[in-house]
Automatic annotation (TrEMBL):
Organism: Paracoccus contaminans
Coiled-coil regions listed in the entry: none
Family: Belongs to the metallo-beta-lactamase superfamily. Class-B beta-lactamase family.
Name the UniProt record assigns to this protein: MBL fold metallo-hydrolase
Cited Gene3D superfamilies: Ribonuclease Z/Hydroxyacylglutathione hydrolase-like
Keyword Hydrolase recorded: yes
GO molecular function annotation: hydrolase activity
Secretion signal span: none
Amino acid sequence: MFVPVLTACLAAAPHDCAPRLLPAGAGADMAACRTAGESAAAAWLAAHPGLTGRGWTCAPLDAAPALALIEIAPGVLVSRGADEPLSPANRGRIANLGVVIGERQVAVIDPGGTREQGEALLAAIRARTGLPIGPVILTHMHPDHIAGAEVFAEAGGEVIADARLPAALARRRAAWMETIPAQIGASAWAGTALIDPARTVADETVIELGGTALTLTPVPAAHTDTDLTVRDSRSGTLFTGDLVFRGLTPVVDASLSGWLAWLAAPAADTAHVVPGHGPVAASLVAATADEGRYLAALRDAVRAALDTGQGLSGAVPAIMAAMAPLAPGWADFEATTARNAAAAWAEMEWE
Ligand SMILES: [Zn+2]
């Protein structure tokens, strides 16, 4: 498969350019790609303000820069993110991304933190299989997981998310479009859009891939209020999104009590657990042991601080002191824990 490759330059920095793959103009051979490329490039540029085009060419998609994929079970692949906060060095590639190859179609579980990463995931998939891209599932609203979705939609995939996601994304999209390029660099973010899903699910939903099926399970407010898990029936792999952090400090963006309730619920039968951040584990118990300790300690520290009757600003040093023994093994512990303390405080203040 050949795709148009557009040289897209930042309007604000015309020498800052990046190659953008345009699967909407893909063709079976070079000639078909050349026929479709001009209109595909014009249409894409018109839909992505802030960029100017500096020519395009056609190239085989399976030869484009590709993410490394680890096969954790037959047909189940994971791209491991850097277990650290967003930075110019990691270019937004911090989340784990999943791929399940069925007999009829390929599913993607979290399409990446930028357009650039989504393109590299698509190239990695195409280097392994020519099967159609089917469901592109967003485990929750955070951009480090979902900002690569648009290139998969252009490649024919159906972007699917929790029913609560469109409204939640609408509230924060504009802010994220400003803050994330500031954190990772404007060129790493070039051409990235935070698109809405084509389909949403409010209840447990099974999607057949041929030879295996994915079960999508929406979860009440926990890490965010848009979380869902994805379980692959053939391999017994559970993709938890950010309901499980390993190595990178958990971020409480919706409900600490809801998250602890999810952790306490009976675990699904799993052979592999793919967390949102950190290494793959063999069981949910193993995957969540450290996170469970962290979140329970946060709850206890905030409750103890609330019991003293002082305000949040006065309580933060005591909360941080109570949490400090847990710091080893967690990246970005101080900054994230300070934010989590404020979030948990707001949640627990009225309990
Ligand atoms: Zn997240």
